[in-house]
Amino acid sequence: xxxxxxxxxxxxxxxxEPRLLLVHLIRExxxxxxxxxxxxxxxxxxxxxxxxxxxxxxxxxxGVQADGRAVTTVEGLMQNGQLHPIQAAFKExxxxxxxxxxxxxxxxGAALLEHNESPSDDEVRWAISGNICRCTGYMNIVKAVQTAxxxxxxxxxxxxxPAAS
Amino acid sequence: MLPARFEYHRPGSLxxxxxxxxxxxxxxKVLAGGMSFIPLMKLRFAAPGHLVDINRIxxxxxxxxxxxxxxxxxxxxxxxxxxxxxxxxxxxAMATAAPLIADPIVRNMGTIGGSLAHADPAGDWGSVMxxxxxxxxxxxxxxxxxxxxxxxxxxxxxxxLRANEIISEVRVPVPPARSGGTYLxxxxxxxxxxxxxxxxxxxxxxxxxxxxGIGLTAxxxxxxxxxxxxxxxxxxxxxxxAFAEAARLAGRAAEPTSxxxxxxxxxxxxxxxxxxxxxxxxxxIARAS
Lengths: 165, 289
Description:
Chain A is α+β, with helices and mostly antiparallel strands. Chain A has helices spanning 22-29, 85-92, 102-115, 121-127, 139-164, and strands spanning 2-7, 10-15, 48-51, 54-57, 70-72. In chain A, a hairpin with a 2-residue loop joins β3 (48-51) and β4 (54-57).
């Protein structure tokens, strides 16, 4: 089946079997291996990507379901050579150890910050409760998401000032 | 893991979808959120020849109250229900249950209609709908058929839906003024299936209990309606004694089995504790409403 997916802002076409999972489409057809396959059973969240901005588990969706839609993977977080604030914060706060869960964690965190500019510990923990990390114990992941929130808020403040005047 | 091969169809309307089901018969299967069904396909427990994806049928999404019913279109995601002000304002059992289903990412895709059609005895919506007296509208090319959720569940993963029917709407009666409800779920960790879940709904009528609904999750081959417990509450004074008796009867209605989540005896005990707690909470809400 012929499909077109906008992946990280770029429209890509592929001819796929309907049974091909979205995660395989991303990794194999599009060659973007930042999206990881963890449990392959909808539990761990390592394969999390954003579908039209909403986090989904790409191991539990078919590639054909993304036809005509926009997918963001970890490779799409960086803009104009600049790390996304969530990437910078994961680095700064040591929000990762082995790094396997990190792409999914960062995408879930970035999606949370789109509608919650200043999440509490509990709100971050609630949001990432579908993403499993076996290294960090989550402390630094929570800190990283909050650090990113502060960075994004301070980026916004100067830009907002002229609009308000 | 890849599922067995299938042909994929993405109808743009409900009528188009039911026409496809008419054509494929037992070989056709509806794909809603897919959060339970795709894993089953990957494990090859299910291998439909034709998959009819209803995710893009816009008529199948949304929540509204009309003509005495709360109507939730079948492809409405768990997270939309959890975030609905309407649901939060008058349907506390649904509002409590929705954020306890699976995990936040699964809730972005999983749907209420899919969950009911899947008929997992550990599914949370089933019990909530039993407590609320919910119904589903089953649509086919021959029209709509309304099925009480209690009559929808046959056994584990088996419903009374026909092969050419699609749940288009899930609906519950608008509760009377002094009503309350809640959902209690014991799970080992976030995202796990319930060890035990209990949904409770209660309406007061002049200080007495006008009606009560109790649904049980993960303690039998289907979601169980604790009918004897409900009957014992009808017309009773809301009291610890009445709630304890309802809890005992609900425990008797449960048919738990021992597994890695706990022994049958333990689960039955949790049912009793949850029914008592749930009724007390529902009463608080009803009195405050």
